[in-house]
Amino acid sequence: MSSLRESNGVKALRAVIIVITMVLAIGPVLYGVLLSLRPFAAVLNDPLDIVPAIGEISFEAYSQAMRSAADGGYGLGGFLVNSLILAVGTVLASILVSILGAYATARIRFSGRSVGNAIIVAVYMFPGVVLAVPLFVLLSRAGLTGTLVGLVIVYVALTVPVSLYMLRNYFIALPSSIEDAALIDGCSLMGVIWRIVLPIALPGIAATAMYMFMIAWNEYLYALLFLVQERSLWTAPLGIAQLTEFDTPVTILLAGSVVVTVPVVLLFMFAQRLLISGLATGAEK
Amino acid sequence: MTRAARGSRLSRGQRANLHGYLLSAPSYLAVTLVILIPFCAVVIFAFADFRLIDIQQMTLGTIDWSLANFAKALSSGTFWGALGTTVAYAVFTTIGVIGGGVVVALAMRRPFPGQTVVRALFLVPYVLPVIAGTTIWRTMLNPQYGFLNAFGTQVLGWETPIAFLTTKTFQVGSVGIPMALTVVILFEIWKSAPFTFLFVTARLQNVPAELEDAAAIDGANARQRLTHIVLPQLRTVVMVLLLLRFIWSFQNFNDIYLLTQGAGGTEVMAVKVFKELTVRADVGSAAAYGLCMTVILLVFGIGWALVNRRKEAM
C-alpha cells in the first residue's frame, strides 16, 4: 500500500462510497430481521415504520414458523432438519470422495490425469439446469425422486468437481517433504493421507467443506423438482418458497429466512477460528 | 509423488498408475454417473419426441428421432425472447457485479479503524442464503406492505404503488423501462458484487506500493496513477471474473425464479427449460433448450480463451 497523501476530494469520495455500500449491504437484511419481530397487522398498517416499538416486539412469528403443521405452525423445524441431513450427508460424501481424487491428481503422476482434470474443470462450468432434465427422467425411472437419497446423490456429483478443484489447488500448495519422509519410513499411501495430509490440510478441507455446505444448504432447483410432492421432505429453501405461494403472512416468511441464515453464520464463526489456528501452526521447519 | 514400496512386483510407474486410478475412481464415478451420462441423455432427448408420461416405457429402441424440438424452438418467438432476456441479464449483471466490486475495493484500499468489520459486513449479501435474500427483497418491493412503495407513495408522492416484480415495462415519460428484469439484475448485483469485491481486494493487496510511489515522484496525479498503474494490474483477475460471472449469470435459475417465477419479462433460458419440463411436460423440448444454452456457453468459453491467448502472446 502506497503511503501517498491524497486530496480531500478523493477522501470524501471514498467515504461516500463506503457508507452507501454499507447501507445497501446491511439495510435490507436489517429490515428483514426487524420486520420479523413485529406483528403482521402492524406491518400491514404502517410499512414505513420499520423499527418495532418496545412493547410490540414478539417472537411469535418464529415459534409459529418452526412448529409442525399438526401444532398449528408452518413446519419449518422439520424442513430445517431435512436440509441439515441433506447438507451434512452431501458434505461428508463429497469431501471423502474428493480428498482421495484431489490427492491423486495433486501428488501422483499417473497417465491420463491431465485429461481427467480437464473434464472436471469443464464439468464445473456446466449449466446445472440442463442436467436437471435428464436427472429428473433417470431418477424418476429409478424411483428415487421423492427421496432424500436421490437428492444427496445429485448434490454429491454437483459438488465433487468444485471440491476436487479447490482441494487439489490446496494440496499442490502444501510441501510434500513430510509425506515423502513418511513413505520412505514405510507408511502406506492411505496412512500418509490419513495421518499426514488430513491434519495439515485441515484448514483447506474446512474451507472446502463450508463451501459445499453452502451449496447444499442453498440449493433450490433440484429440491423443487424432486421433492415438491412430498411435503414431509421439503428442504428449508423449498419450504419457504412454497409457503410464499400459500399467502403465508410475511412475518412468518421473514422469520424463516432469519432462521435459515443462522447455521451459515454459526458455521462462519466456527470455521474462522479453525482456519486461523490451522494456518498458524506451520508443520514444516 | 509415491515411491514403489520395497519388494513390490510392480514397477514404480505401474504402481503410481494403480494408486492414481484407485484414488480418483470414486470422483470420476460420481461425475460420470450424474453428469456425463445425463449430458449424453440430454443430447438424445433433444432429438426425441418425448414427454413426461413416456418415462416408464422409454427405451433407446422406441425413440422417435426428430429435429422437431429444435425446429419448433428456433422458429418460435419465445425462444428468441428468452435468449435475448438471458443475454441482457448476463451482460448487465456481469458488468454491474465486476464494476461494483472494483469500485468498492478501490474505495476500501486505505486502512481505517474498523476496516475488518466493515469488510465482513460487505460480504453479508453474498453469504446470506438465497431464499432469505429473495424473501427480503420480495417483502421490500411488495405493493401492499413493502417499504419501497410505502416510501414512494407517502414521501415521494407516487400516485400508485409499483408492482416491481410483475411489471414488464414501466413508462417514465416516453421511455419504457423493463421493470422486473431491472430488479432481478439489481438483486444479482447486490448479491454477487461482494464476491468480486473479495477477489479484487486480494489482488489489490499485492500491487507493489513502490510502483505508485515512483509514478507519483515522476509527477503522475491520482487519476493517472489509477488508470496507468493500478487498473492494469487488475486485468487478469477481471478477465477470470468475467468468464465465471457470465457463465454463472447465464445459467442462473434460483434467484430469478424465487423473485419472479419468470413473470414480468424475466423468463430467462434456465426458467424456460424448467417450465418446458414441469409445466408443459415436454422433455424433448426442455432438452433442446438446454442443449442450445450449453452450445452458447461453449462458444463464449472458446471465445474467451482465444481473446486471452492472443493478449498473452502480445
Walk me through what this model shows.
The complex is a heterodimer of chains A (285) and B (314). With 285 residues, chain A is mostly helical. Chain A is 74% helix and 0% strand. Chain A is globular and about 75 Å long. The two termini of chain A are 30 Å apart. By secondary structure, chain B is mostly helical. Helix content of chain B is 69%, strand content 3%. Chain B is built from 14 helices and two strands; from the N terminus they run H-H-H-H-H-H-H-E-E-H-H-H-H-H-H-H. Chain B has a two-stranded antiparallel sheet. In chain B, helix 6 runs parallel beside helix 12 and helix 8 (179-204) runs antiparallel to helix 11 (235-250). The chains are: A mainly alpha (285), B mainly alpha (314). The interface between A and B is large, with 97 and 95 residues.
Number of helices of chain A: 12
CATH level-3 fold name of the largest domain in chain A: MetI-like fold
Widest sheet, order of strands of chain B? 1-2
- CATH superfamily heading of chain B: MetI-like
Average residue-wise pLDDT of chain B: 81
Question: What would you say about this model in short?
Answer:
The complex is a heterodimer of chains A (285) and B (314). Mean pLDDT of chain A is 80; it is low at 278-285. Chain A contains 12 helices and no strands.
